Amino acid sequence: MLRTVLGAATLLALVSIAHAGDQDVSEQSCDGNTYQMVECLKAKTAQWDKRLNTAYQKALGAAGDKQREQFRAAQRLWIQYRDANCLYYGMGEGTIARLEAGECMRSMTEARAKELEGIGQQ
């Protein structure tokens, strides 16, 4: 039980992206000690999350009445899946688990942002 709580706390720490700046960090290499790498991944995730939210709002506005509620439901389920999937990695052994969870959040958020940015462009 304690391990689950600690894993969840680690993931929540990785997800807390409000403090990340708006500077372009997508090309930045996440080198350094574990703390620096985790912080770098948080900043990259924050940047992709901002793009995801912008693309989501744009796609939601362009969706027809029949699609709009389904799109909202799909996005909510995607967030639940992403969080649960990355929590799995965060519950691994050692400090590498924090990095794996952070990379999971970054890469999944990036992929979803790109997917939503492509809606209507097919």
What does this molecule look like?
By secondary structure, this protein is mainly alpha-helical. It has helices at 2-15, 34-62, 65-90, 96-117. It is elongated, with a radius of gyration of 16 Å. The termini are far apart. The model is unreliable at 4-23 (pLDDT under 50).
Which secondary structure elements does this structure contain, and how are they paired or packed?
Layout: H1 2-15, H2 34-62, H3 65-90, H4 96-117
Helix pairs in contact: 1-3, 1-4, 2-4, 3-4
Question: Can I get a quick summary?
Answer:
With 122 residues, this protein is mostly helical. The chain has four helices and no strands. Mean pLDDT is 83; it is low at 4-23.
Q: Helix coverage percent of residues?
A: over 70%
Quick check: average pLDDT? 83
Number of strands: 0
- Cα-to-Cα separation, first versus last residue: 46 Å
The biggest sheet, with number of strands, parallel, antiparallel or mixed sense and barrel status, is: none
Strand content: under 5%
What are the salient characteristics of this protein?
75% helix, 122 residues, elongated, mainly alpha, 4 helices
